[in-house]
Amino acid sequence: MEKISVLTRNVSFRNSERMKISVREAHRDDLEILVENNQALAKETEALRLDAVVLKQGIEQALKREECHYFVAETSGKVVGQTMITYEWSDWRNGVIWWMQSVYVTPEYRKQGVFRSLFTHI
After folding, report:
1. What's 91's domain CATH number?
2. Exposure of 114 by Cβ count < 10 A (0-12 exposed, 13-18 middle, 19+ buried)?
3. How far, in Å, CA of 41 to CA of 20, rounded?
4. CB–CB of 111/55 below 8 Å?
5. H-type alpha helices, 1-122
6. pTM for this entry
7. Which pLDDT value is given to residue 13?
8. Which long-range contacts (CB under 8 A, 24 or more apart) does 96-101 make?
9. CB-based burial label for 51 (10 Å; 0-12, 13-18, 19+)
10. Is there a domain that residue 2 lies in?
11. Which residues pair with 85 in a beta bridge?
12. What's the pLDDT tens digit per position in 62-91?
């Protein structure tokens, strides 16, 4: 399987209100906010309550795995959005594709270019 390189440089975009959004690959220091965001995502989209211990362990493992990459969007030093990409085999394309999941933007920062910044970075 050919490894797809992942951009890890900071990319900044400005939305219509001139808020600066920076995107970077997540690291261990982001663990707590990733857990919080994933719990909020599951509750909001599927009415599920995820076990925080299991979720934390899962995110810790994802951060260590070569085939998983979490990205966070920040403004003024605060994480306001996230996504994770993994690799998946596509029989339709006869190759490996990126699968984007765990997409979450903090409610008060929605419709301000946060997801666009994450997507453009990836």
Report:
1. 3.40.630.30
2. buried
3. 24
4. no
5. 31-46, 52-64, 114-121
6. 0.82
7. 52
8. 96/1, 96/2, 96/4, 98/4, 98/122
9. exposed
10. no
11. 69, 100
12. 999 999 999 999 999 999 999 999 999 999
Q: Please check whether residue 21 lies inside any domain of the structure.
A: yes
Closest by CA position to 10, among listed 66, 89, 72, 76: 72
Q: Is residue 90 part of a domain?
A: yes
pLDDT, tens digit (0-9, with 9 covering 90-100), for 27-64: 999 999 999 999 999 999 999 999 999 999 999 999 99
How many structural domains are present in the chain?
Answer: 1
Tokens read off for 93: 């394309």
Structural tokens at position 51: 């076990």
- Cβ-based neighbours of 71, under 8 Å, separated by 6 or more: 23, 24, 25, 26, 82, 83, 84, 85, 118, 121, 122
Host domain of residue 96: 11-121
Residue 115 in any domain: the answer is: yes
Give the number of other Cβ atoms within 10 Å of residue 9's Cβ: 8
| Structure token pair of residue 69 | 């990459």
